[in-house]
């Protein structure tokens, strides 16, 4: 019973101790940019036919040629994945005859690829277009080791918070104490200033120009420092 009373007395004293502790709370943020070293995009083919098989075969032939081309360009199987396969019945309404007019079927087959050698990207795009791909979208940029970029952003965010705390303490004429807590207030955000979703024109240059820009990782932290005596 005596031990329980001692523990309760100790716990009761904790809020008072916390209330008497003077602190400085600051937020730190930082961003780190790097050139991307890989790209991801979706490409494929859309075809039409009077029956489902004809429509689907039209896209399958193109995708077979595209996949063969990508393999020849050095893309690995792990970097190619079917992301969409659709077949839709096409029709229109004839208002004069007051009936539906059947037009056929439309099929689409989309492949998402990852290009790890950016020096090949323009050549890859031009090649698949020549092979019959008529849909290109969702070009985005990335880095193979995002953890390195994210960790550097975190380190700089902590340094930013510590610099601010020292500045505020010095300006107020107060001694800065130990770090009491660090809270990650946001997951690192990987941003690319260039994100494209562009339809393919019927006539394109032999090489498709692309601009990679930079990838940016951002981090934010909140730190609490004790004020020394």
Automatic annotation (TrEMBL):
Any idea which UniProt keywords this protein has?
Signal
**One protein family per Pfam:** SIMPL
Q: Which InterPro entries match?
A: 26kDa_periplasmic_antigen, SIMPL/DUF541
Source superkingdom: Bacteria
Q: Where is the signal peptide?
A: 1-18
The Gene Ontology biological process annotation of the record reads: DNA damage response
Provide the protein name.
26 kDa periplasmic immunogenic protein
Which organism's genome codes for this protein? Pelagimonas phthalicica
């Amino acid at each position: 019973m005596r031990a329980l009373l001692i523990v309760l007395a100790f716990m009761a004293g904790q809020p008072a101790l916390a209330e008497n502790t003077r602190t400085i709370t600051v937020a730190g943020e930082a961003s780190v940019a790097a050139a991307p070293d890989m790209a991801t995009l979706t490409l494929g083919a859309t075809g039409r036919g009077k029956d489902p098989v004809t429509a689907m075969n039209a896209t399958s032939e193109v995708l077979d040629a595209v996949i063969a081309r990508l393999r020849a360009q050095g893309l690995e199987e792990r970097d190619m994945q079917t992301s969409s396969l659709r077949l839709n019945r096409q029709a229109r309404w004839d208002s004069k005859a007051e009936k539906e007019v059947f037009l056929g079927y439309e099929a689409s087959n989309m492949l998402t690829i990852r290009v790890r050698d950016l020096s090949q990207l323009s050549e890859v795009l031009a090649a698949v277009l020549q092979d019959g791909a008529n849909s290109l979208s969702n070009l985005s940029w990335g880095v193979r080791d995002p953890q390195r970029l994210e960790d550097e952003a975190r380190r700089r965010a902590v340094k930013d918070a510590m610099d601010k705390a020292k500045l505020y303490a010095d300006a107020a004429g107060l001694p800065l104490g130990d770090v009491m807590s660090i809270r990650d207030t946001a997951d690192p955000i990987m941003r690319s200033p260039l994100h494209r979703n562009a339809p393919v024109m019927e006539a394109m240059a032999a090489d498709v120009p692309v601009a990679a820009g930079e990838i940016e990782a951002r981090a934010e932290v909140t730190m609490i420092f004790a004020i020394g005596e």
